[in-house]
Amino acid sequence: MDLHLLAALFAGAVTGTATGLSTRYVLHRCSGLTAPGCPAALGVAGAGLGLFAAGGVLAARWLPLLAVLCWLVVAGTSTDLAHRRLPNVLTLPALPVVLVALVPAGGTAVLRAGAGALLLAGAYAVVHLVAPVAMGAGDVKLAGPVGAAVTAPGWGGLPVTALLAMLVSGLVAVLALLAGRARWGSRLPHGPVLLGAALTALLPVVTGTVTCSGATTTG
Question: Of 16, 156, 169, 213, whose Cβ has the fewest other Cβ atoms within 10 Å?
Answer without folding.
Answer: 213
